[in-house]
Amino acid sequence: MDKFELVFIPFLGLSHLVATVQTAKLLLDRDGRLSITILTMQLPSDTTVDAYTAKISASATASPRLTFVPLPIPRDWSPQSKTSLFDLIDNQITNVRDIVEQRRRDLPIAGIVLDMFCLKFIDVAREFDVPAYCFFTSGACTLGLFQYVVSLKFEENKELSEFKNSDVEFPVPCFSLPVPAKVLPAAFVDGGPIADAFLNYFKRISETDGIMVNTFYEFEPHAIDSMAGNNPMVYPVGPILDLSSQLNEDDAKKWLDDQPEKSVVFLCFGTMGSFGKEQVREIALALENSGCRFLWSLRKPGAIGGKLVVEYEDFGEVLPEGFLDRTKGVGRVIGWAGQVAVLAHKAVGGFVSHCGWNSTMESVWFGVPVATFPLYAEQQLNAFQLVKELGMAEMIRLDYKIDFRGEAPPEIVEAGEIEGAIQRLMGAEGDEVRRKVEEMRKKGRAALEEGGSSYKAQTLFIEDVIRKIS
User: Fold this and answer.
1) Catalytic residue IDs
2) Which one of 8, 131, 326, 371 counts the least CB within 10 Å of its CB?
3) What distance lies between CA 257 and its chain's CA centroid?
4) Are residues 349 and 382 in the same domain?
5) Is the pLDDT of residue 306 over 60?
6) How far apart are CA 444 and CA 438, in angstroms?
């Protein structure tokens, strides 16, 4: 085949899109015959997706073989439904069909690569008789856990809500240890239409022709080996990272520059991470009592119906009185942070994290050990994997969850618990964790080099794509 194209369809929002773009770049580097078109989706109030794609397209290193096509927002879409995001995706099927039809006039479409939440479009791939692949933006353990939960639901007819707050442990093949029900994603065990939507999506993973996973063999060998020989085939192509972020505050960078090497603990909780006033005060007390140098990315919950997270105009409205004065010189509180730029800084020696998968891969890439403070999605599972399965993190909590439904008072993690984890993370007790993370840092970088495990998986994926359509 002289030239061919893959069409990628990522989930709404920036984090899935960034991982998709970085994956596309890696594949384009592997084979000069390949072109990639990415169909983007965004909410009516969201401008970050268009800004990001414009930045990528305008960069000096932009590939002419990478194209972005924005999908229109359906006029009849309403954000009121509990499953509104999935409705928005499902309503794009006609637009996706039209774009694929148009693109295939210029180049042969060798496959459609779908985000785990966009598997509805397998139907479009089948209409055009081309393979459908899944790009799984989390790790292999999570993929295996999702497949296990799907089997509980659809093969064993289990009602998953019975496991909410349960002490049951599951023998999930991709984990070497039993997995507690308390670290399952809340969406699975809360019940209702959202749980049904998630499970019906993940059920369709088995219909795809292959699954690219944002991980590398050396990080999850047990999980990847447990899926060897299965259909669809799993391709561990990561770690997939966007290393282009910068610190948004020059004075924060200057402050870091003045700190001793590996002396600063960085606290950051992702694009949707924020806490109420009471929890913020417990974190502040923990930092002050720990005596550790810190850089804290602190943001507040948005108003109902608006953005989930917004910036503080005055940190004094939420922090304990006098906190900023008492910790002056020892710590800094900032708003949104360029996380990669912070983790890459030589002064940073620990990371209090929500354990999102992108953050997990970034912490490994830069060799910065984590203290786990998961909030939502599969983050509790990631925290369990890091602490119990791999011994690569200190535990604040494994099963802390934000209740987006607002049905119960927010759980508060007390200062002493946070302080103890930070001191273990930054002190002599964390030596073994730091050693393991440093070892994995080297393996992660080697995986992407020519001849490395992920380099080989990327090449194998392209070879299999070509073989299926030849």
Assistant:
1) 16, 115
2) 326
3) 28
4) yes
5) no
6) 10
* pLDDT band, very low/low/confident/very high, at 14 (cuts 50, 70, 90): confident
Residues 144 and 66 in one domain: yes
162 shares its domain with 238: yes
CA dihedral 272, 273, 275, 279 (to 10 degrees): 160
In a domain, 163, yes or no: yes
CA 259 to chain centre: 29
Beta pairing partners, 34: 4
Question: Tokens for 2?
Answer: 């002289």
Q: Give, in order, the Cα–Cα distances in Å from 252 to each of 76, 266, 296, 353.
A: 44, 12, 10, 19
- Per-residue pLDDT reduced to its tens digit, 167-204: 999 999 999 999 999 999 999 999 888 899 999 999 99
**What pLDDT shows up at residue 469?**
84
**Same structural domain for residues 119 and 228?**
yes
Q: Is residue 377 part of a domain?
A: yes
Greatest Cα pair distance in the chain: 69
Q: For residues 29 and 26, what is the distance between their CA atoms, to the nearest angstrom?
A: 5
Is-contact 151 234, C-beta < 8 A? no
pTM: 0.95
pLDDT band at 1 (very low <50, low <70, confident <90, very high): low
Full residue range of the structural domain in which residue 29 is found: 4-242+452-469
**Is 436 part of any domain?**
no
Measuring CA to CA, which residue among 357, 352, 356 is closest to residue 140? 357
Q: Which helix (H) or strand (E) holds 163?
A: none
- Taking the chain, what is the end-to-end CA distance rounded to the nearest angstrom? 7
Q: For 349-381, write each residue's pLDDT tens digit.
A: 999 999 999 999 999 999 999 999 999 999 999
Domain shared by 261 and 339, yes or no: yes
Alpha helices by DSSP H, 76-191: 84-90, 93-103, 122-127, 140-154, 186-189
Q: In which band, very low, low, confident or very high, does the pLDDT at 405 lie, cut at 50, 70 and 90?
A: low
Q: Report which residue type is found at 242.
A: D
- Same structural domain, 234 and 257: no
> Based on the structure, what is the number of domains in the chain?
2
The domain spanning residue 370 has which CATH number?
Answer: 3.40.50.2000
Residues 228, 269, single domain; the answer is: no
